[in-house]
Amino acid sequence: QEPLVESGGGSVQAGGSLTLSCASSTITTSSARMAWFRQAPGKEREGVAAIDADSHTSYGASVMGRFSISRDNAKNTLDLQMTTLKPEDAAIYYCAADSDSTGQPLPGQWLPRLLDSRQYDIWGHGTQVTVSS
After folding, report:
1. pLDDT, tens digit, for every residue of 72-99?
2. Which pLDDT score is estimated for 2?
3. How far apart are CA 65 and CA 86, in angstroms?
4. Which of 8, 29, 58, 63 could bridge across to 20 with cysteines, CB 3.0–4.6 Å?
């Protein structure tokens, strides 16, 4: 069974909304350091949003104010609410987890690592988001 499975991707028009969900069979999403990344064709993987073990959140500059990361403890999922979507938001969205992070938030000076892909060792296969203008 895959440790992280994303769902909720699809096609929307610019200005629309989508909610992505990441379900885990091995990670307790309520207490782990987890994040959403995205990668568009020809571009590097980009950190979108992250939530630390103490629930501190961090967002990429391009999605600040439009996206929101949250946990659904009852379902053991990590969710990403995306609003006011733009064509440049189109990408494959990946869920990631730091398997050694339960109860261990990053020290303050290390918080920029929340959106660094090297901080995470477990990855889902991704879900496609398409935004038409």
Report:
1. 999 999 999 999 999 999 999 999 999 9
2. 83
3. 13
4. 8
Side-chain half-sphere CA neighbours of 44 within 13 A: 4
Taking alpha carbons only, the member of 104, 98, 103, 130 closest to residue 116 is 98
Q: Structure tokens of 125?
A: 């296969």
Distance CA(38)–CA(28), nearest Å, equals: 22
CB atoms within 10 A of CB 21: 18
Residue 11 tokens read as 């096609």
Token digits of residue 69:
């990361």
Which phi-psi region, left, alpha or beta, contains residue 90 (left: φ > 0; alpha: ψ -120 to 50)? beta
Sequential DSSP letters for the chain: --SEEEE--EEEETT--EEEEEEESSS-TTTSEEEEEEE-TTS--EEEEEE-TT--EEE-TTTTTTEEEEEETTTTEEEEEE-S--GGG-EEEEEEEETT-TT-PPPGGGGGGGG-GGG--EE---EEEEEE-
Dihedral sign from CA coordinates of 75, 76, 82, 87: negative
